[in-house]
Model the fold of this input.
Amino acid sequence: MSALQKNIMKSNLPPKMPRTSGETKLAPYSGGRKRNYAPVSWNQYFEKSVDLETESGSFRVYLSPEPDHPQRPRIITLHGGGYSGLSWALFTEEITNMIHCQVVSLDIRGHGETQAKNPNDLSIETLIKDVEQVIHKLYGDDELPPLILLGHSMGGAIAVRAAHLPGIEPYIYGVAVIDVVEGTAMDALASMQSFLRGRPTHFKSLEHAIEWCVRSGQVRNVESARVSMPSQIVNCTTNQLAINEVDTYVIDDVTDEVATCTRADVILEEGEGDGEGDGFVSPTPVTGGAMKYRWRVDLSKTEQHWSGWFSGLSNSFLTTRAPRLLLLASVDGLDRELTVGQMQGKFQMQVLTRCGHAVHEDSPAEVARVLASFLLRHRLTSATDEGENMQLGSTPGC
Done:
């Protein structure tokens, strides 16, 4: 069972909210030290962002600095449903310190700062066409640099399918997929709507949203959540993505309380926490006027596209021409087709424990190390001075 499926199966009840006192102040952690949930700007991890105009709309792309040679690989990162290109922020910092490369992190249509002409069209055919158009817009229609497609969950499905497109296939030198397997993904779809209904619909502040993200287990790494969560929510008043407020954001200590769910009919069972230390109780319903932020994308309305993302994914992955890497959060995440393929040595597999579904956010250094070793093993780049000291080639693979 994949990490995503485990999260869904245990989420018939909404993600738990931290216990609060009568004054709605946060209860202290068992260690007595309160975490910092203040948002962090993306420009600490990427050199710049660009909005690329294609025939399908405007697509936001975040880029790390140009590599030292034009033939160094470009790692095209594709996020999962509901996330954004900023979910790769900490990974980007790690991988560019290890090997010579450039990270190109895309906000998929309907997500982040991308403004597509038909944002609700999340069919797999449209999504892979978007990726191809963005790549050609960045590098031209003639000679492309070596490309590595790296995708998480939905983004992994996009990466695999895009690797078969005739217009870019000759330039795909590697495909890496994080925590998405056709069999377990298709099994999880039946519970997805219940999982989504359990999430808060609104948040009172950016800190509240980031805290929920960490405490619910959506992202276990608080430093990553501080960068990525603001790109997943929108200010209800301005309808602008919350990342536009980060640089000028002022933490309000007076209202430093936990995000609450607007659904009054939800009852949470005390003691069913995620191991973060505090107990949990039912969230207190709050009037709409107190809710400042909402989700950027309503994933519940994309259900018609879900099966299309994952159906046939295993075969498509195994028949990809380029070298293949699969990273999972659980060793029992393979379906039958991939199990046979792995036994035949058709792809490299790495299991990273102590991670949730967002493996690259929870353990960005480990994911970067595995991918760096994969690219070095296939002689697609070389290590930086810092990477030389890490013995990257020694990372084991299954």
